[in-house]
Amino acid sequence: MFFFAYNILSTLLLVPVFLFNIYRSIRLGWPLAIAERFGFVPQSKLSEISGRPVIWLHAVSVGEIIAARPLLKALRRRYPGHAIVVSNTTETGKATASGFAEIDLCLYFPFDFLPSVRAMLNSVGPRIIIIMETEIWPNFCREAARKNVPLLLANGRISDRSFRRYLQFSWFFRPALRCFSAVCMQSEVGRQRITAIGADTETTIVTGNLKNDIPSHQTSEEERRRLRVQYYIPEDSCVVTAGSTREGEEQYIVSAYKELSAEAGNLFLVLVPRHPERTAEIAKLLEDADLRYKKRTALSDDHTTLRCGEVLLVDTVGEMINLYSLADIAFVGGSLVPLGGHNLLEPASVGVPTVFGPHMANFREIEALVLQYGAGIQVQTPEELTGSFRALITSSELRSVLGQNGLKLMRANGGATERHMEVITGYL
After folding, report:
1. Most CB atoms within 10 A, among 68, 153, 256, 380?
2. Beta-carbon neighbour count of residue 89 at 10 Å?
3. If you average pLDDT over residues 315-319, what whole number do you get?
4. What separation in angstroms does the CA of 58 have from each of 46, 128, 147, 386?
């Protein structure tokens, strides 16, 4: 009865969803990809996976696909004869996934409209489907189960705020959750939450956080020098990389940078908004602050090395690890404003100390680890940002200690990839 009612509703919403997708694509400058959204994959693409058993992994956007990277690498090593297909919902997620050598084919995830789902499942013909984190679509889940395709939830998590909403609508999620062959959660809290929503307790397990398995190493001076040359950043500067920044944060970062640049003549800022389509808005902010900047996409125009006190404004995706690796200090965005934060382990994985804000609802476990190991500094208000940056800028010893603590954290908390692989191997 639930799926019957859901399909009537999804049919009624098809036109509004279709029009909204067109509007969003035009506004953000994304390809429409209408055919794939309706489940039709060109034969030219399917030829890339023809004749091989398919592993299909779905990751909504950038954060999920980066978290999936260790798992993708492990799948490629263990199943070299399989084709790995990755679907994404956002253009930035697809752009990031397209740069991963482990992936054979990147697609847009279809609308959860029954004919669209059926068409894509028939075209791709997966042997197994792996859904990253908490992407639960009733028709997709049911059709996978109907075709006897094992459906796994990987790296599952439910934030404090999301749990209340999921619980309120458990009647909606329970039928889809019961279609999963296995549900792999990051933590015991997550396991308890998703079973309360409706997942089967017998098939729900704790496998840890794949984000803890990001490859980690101390960035060498030679590597840092090479990266700075690649990005035209002064080699002897003290670089602050502000990564995954969101609306409402850049103004505080720019203010702190201007004040500290007046005190330390060798400071340089790399500003990386989470959504590159906001580049023009941030460029206006920098101009209003009387700061010289260059966009990442314009670096090769004149091959001129930037100067201390200027800003590299990154209008691309897929370069975050490089941009943290060349830094002395990192700021991780989405945390000064109530948006749930972003992944603190990316700078920790390359031995770079991190500053972040109080709003980390989507990364509670990682936040706790970073504080437990002393791998970063958490500020409670935007106004504290300048002081925390100053402390790190003026003390190379403090930077070194926090950076080394981040690497210790990474070494001590891995293993989630192998635990996921044990589950996946049981179905392949």
Report:
1. 68
2. 16
3. 90
4. 17, 11, 18, 39
pLDDT of amino acid 362: 87
Average pLDDT over residues 70-78: 96
What's the rounded Cα separation, in Å, for the pair 424 and 150?
9
Query: Rounded distance, CA 16 to CA 5, Å?
Result: 18
Residue 359 · residue 335 · CB < 8 Å: yes
Indicate which residue of 36, 64, 91, 249 is catalytic. Answer: 64
The residue type at 339: L
Averaged pLDDT for residues 96-108: 93
Q: Is residue 259 flagged as an active site residue?
A: no
| CA contacts within 13 A on the Cβ side of 265 | 0
Give pTM, 2 decimals.
Answer: 0.81
54-58/126-132 β-pairing: parallel
Q: What's at 233, amino acid-wise?
A: I
% helix / strand / coil in the chain, to the nearest 5?
50, 15, 35
Distance (Å, whole) CA 21 – CA 33: 10
Two structure tokens written together for 302: 């004149």
Tokens for 136? 């639960």
Ordered structural domains, the chain, with CATH: 2-209+415-427 (3.40.50.11720), 221-412 (3.40.50.2000)
In the numeric block, the tokens 């920098």 are attached to 286
3-state secondary structure of 231: coil
- Assign residue 202 a region: left if phi > 0, alpha if psi is -120 to 50, beta otherwise? alpha
Tens digits of per-residue pLDDT, 239-287?
999 999 999 999 999 999 999 999 998 999 999 999 998 999 999 999 9
Percent of the chain residues past pLDDT 90, beyond the cut: 76
Gyration radius (Cα) of the chain, Å: 22
